[in-house]
Amino acid sequence: MHRNNVLKLLREYADGTGDAFEATIVGATITFVENHTDCLLRSCVPGHLTGSAWVVTPDRRRTLLTHHRKLDKWLQLGGHADGDGDLLAVAQREAREESGLAGLRVVPGPLFDLDRHWIPERKAEPGHYHYDLRFMFEAAADEALQISSESKDLAWVEVSRVSALNPEESMARMVRKTGAPRPG
Question: Domain map of the chain by residue range?
Fold first, then answer.
């Protein structure tokens, strides 16, 4: 497995973060990846790596959210690495599978955000952490969407209204990082 690429990406991100809370998450994620050779697999019981896509319109006014079926909350698109050490590719693949968007464009910059969140026990699956590497993508809001079986719904949401659907700090941090809308 290609943990070295992940560690390089995380260390570069750590060097650029000035936020104490995020620095703690980055440190915990680096330690996790260093200590778990199977961190890219769902079978890694304490947790595993995931890749997410924060999809925005080119003017940064809207973001595409999914109403996640299992977690029953509005979130960014994304999913499990399943052994793939290229988390950017994971995020892009998951965004396409969960939305049907073909015109996704990566926003330059290696990593947009990083989060660690608890996934509660469900059926035969024990509770575990997702160490979520997040990347920003742009897409046109007029492209047709296709809801996957993992979602209850998909919606373009005004970035300023994301907290009305999901007030968690993890989402609020991505909203803050999106910045002010650009001229359309």
Answer: 3-178
